[in-house]
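All the exercises in this workshop are built on plain-text protein records. There is nothing in a record beyond a sequence line and a structure line. A learned vocabulary of local backbone shapes supplies the integers on the structure line. The question running through the whole workshop is how a given chain folds. Here is such a record, shown just as it appears in the course material:

***
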Amino acid sequence: MGHFGGEAGAALVFLIGYLAIFLWMVYAYSTKIIKWRSRYTVLFFHVTIRVGSQACGLVFGILGFENTDVFLAYLILGAEGYFTLVLCTFRFLISWHQHNLPSHESWLEPRQTDVSAAARWKRFFIFLLLGPLAFLFYWREPAVIVHSFLILANAAIITGGSYLAGADFSKPDDPDTIRRFDVAKIARTSGQSVFLAVNFLLIGTILATIYGEKKRGVKKTHPTLILLVIVWFPLITRGIFGVLQSSVWSLSYYNPENYISTGFTPRFVAIEYMLGVVTEWVSCLLLLTTYYTSRNDPSKGDIAELEKKKAQGSDSEAPGS
């Protein structure tokens, strides 16, 4: 028999919150306020995952352990939501570079010098075959390195969580259960630690961008960059909580003391939503508001024309020119 308690209520509140963002973005896409081939698509992916995650959280909050598959789906989708949000923030910074820097090129993601069909196919197959290990070939591209490490960390978190699926929580002293707990703790803590490290790298790149603009003579910090700095605070809070939740037993999803017959304890629900869900939702909303701070930004420029000028500049610097 279902029970609509505090956990289901919290899940419903943020399901409505994410649905509101989802519907606005669908409207914005349909009216061409924002484009599919833009930074917002990664954010839309995050919102879609979070809608699914909160829907699973709502069902689990009502049914409790009558359906453990819903609980596992909630955990996996929650991890994917955080992964996409961190990735999305980097994409927003890269987009700002491409619109606002004089070169219209981001030093986090340098433009490809070889744009031939053969080069594009080579790049495609390297990423297809090596996946996150593609950074071994593109180690000079910071964005590729960041993406690769985020993917590997995400895989470690999911693997750690899935490995506990077969544990017998009624026998915490069983050798197999202890082994599963240890492996899962190492995997999840490692993955969350990488996420945390990437968050510190993120603030470093944002501050480096602001410093670069000041050095270039721009006195007023762009409002989008200010918003990205603000976004970092809930993101780093989420990152610290992720590490603590995977390494501290009292905060773990798998600690029996965090459950009652109908699901999570009120204490655990409050901690989970304040440090996990609220921080992500606020970050998501702040990223979305960069639409209003970037409406007057220059266009990225004609890439072909920029490449032509770049090539002409190289020729003019050649000996004897």
Summary: Residues 314-321 have pLDDT under 50 and may be disordered.
